[in-house]
Queue: 2 jobs
Job 1
Amino acid sequence: MHVTKPEVGLGKCQYRRDMTDSDLQHLRSAIALSRRSRERGNQPFGALLIGPDGQMLLEAENTVVTGPDCTGHAVTNLMRLASRQFTSDFLAGCSLYASTEPCPMCGGAIFWGGVGRVVFALSERAFYQLVGPVRDGLRVGCRDVFAHGQRAIEVHGPALEDEALAVHRGFWGQPT
Ligand SMILES: [Zn+2]
């Protein structure tokens, strides 16, 4: 009997801590979007897409409360917009900035859309340290999702965690 070797991912998605000044600037913009999302009644997450030449292309907020749509995460909303406008070849040269590390659903959207580089502020681990005592979650970081993919995605983070975390404080019903 012929046994097919199971398909395996690249298994080597590492988080890099190196950031440029423009990376930090774009992360601060993503954090500002997360604040605006909260002010508009949604969960405090924001994301934006920067093109190969450093041009600002798209931005998105979380919409799960005002939507209502459980898939209305900021990064998934961004990827919906991105894949309607751009080819995966173009997106391979783009960077996606997220105020919080993308969840498995958002990581999947990034993967299927073909974005080549992800930069996030608050880590999945630090986020769940804040909200963990009072909420369940899908506790998988995007690195673990990308490690199973057949295409490498460069991931940078965390950075500016205090600034990103400040927007979440008091939102999730956790003790302050
Ligand atoms: Zn998500």
Note: The chain has a mean pLDDT of 90.
Job 2
Amino acid sequence: MPSVLNSSRPTTRIKIFSERMLAAMLKNTSYNSKVSTPVFQSKRGCRMLGKNMKRILVTGATGQIGSELTIELRKKYSHDNVVAAGHKRTPSETLLKSGSFESIDITNKEGLERIVEKYDIDTVYHLGAVLSGVGEQNPQAAWHINMDGLYNVLQVAKEHELVRVFWPSSIAVFGPEAPRVNTPQNTVLIPRTMYGVTKVAGELLCNYYFSRFGVDVRSVRYPGIISSETPPGGGTTDYAVEIFYEAIKKKRYTCFVRQDTVLPMMYMPDCIKGTIDLMETDPSRIKCRTSYNMSAMSFSAGQLAAEIKKLCPEFECEYKPDFRQQIADSWIMSMDDSVARKEWGWKPTYDNLAVMTKDMMEILTKKFEAGILP
Ligand SMILES: NC(=O)c1ccc[n+]([C@@H]2O[C@H](COP(=O)([O-])OP(=O)(O)OC[C@H]3O[C@@H](n4cnc5c(N)ncnc54)[C@H](O)[C@@H]3O)[C@@H](O)[C@H]2O)c1
């Protein structure tokens, strides 16, 4: 496979961009955040959008989503073509044995470039991040890792002319000013957490790299993700996963948000499917280059506990809200994802709390009985 990595890019090309930019500005080209056609695109930029993805890098591959997404991508595009990049978390045996694994600090651009060059990477799923709960404990680290990390990925995508980048945003972009029910695709974004701030800024950065440099970066606003493989890494919706583990192990759970707290949620198979579907969609259909609302179901912590109790009658849940309650209260309850449905055919398979709960309980019970539930 020919490497594009050593192609000299540069000054002249950048100069051409600048002149085009100036010309477009003089013609009053307007900037539209909703959408988009890249305003400035090099010849290579156009080719870029047409090329097929071949060699994939997943950052944050040891995380809740990355650990499952990597395995699915390996099944789909062959094990040799998907490189998992972890950070401090120890990778699972499955991840280690199913393909290449590298350690990476996403705030170090040279380190990222080394891996892109070593494996001739042309597509990045950038999942390495600090989540909302941990982010509020250390806002500086959240800003540094989430913003510098994304900036590095986008810069490397631009400089090495990668084919495509995926970066997830979150329901954390919305703040109390946004309509809380059926929140529209385009609405006011004034988050109250540093995590949310990094997601709003990240969406704008992605849109900028697409419209300014033709980087084919795509994004969705994930709701809380519920999964049975890797425990979540410090978000505000972690209770919706922890509750299952504790119900099976101890038949009790102390929930860190109030019983009536309603948030949008999604089961992992839908998260993986939506992510890969978006990445496989023809570029001409992707009109939103900030981030798409992507939704599946919404329920309260109390409704989830009641559903678990139907399958495990001894289960008891108590509620002791901590600092994450305030974060949850600033978020939305449900999302309008009709734009994603219309533009790239998004449709969740699991939109029913009872069905998802039964599936989670069955999988985790089997793990518990086999003595492998963490
Ligand atoms: N899980 C959810 O419910 C949810 C919801 C909305 C958005 N998201 C987004 O999805 C992405 C993945 O989330 P997740 O739930 O898998 O998170 P996670 O915390 O489980 O995993 C994130 C990974 O990032 C890695 N990481 C941290 N600092 C790093 C650094 N400096 N360099 C490289 N890697 C680093 C960690 O090792 C971790 O494994 C994140 O962008 C997150 O904001 C997740």
Note: The longest strand covers residues 262-267.
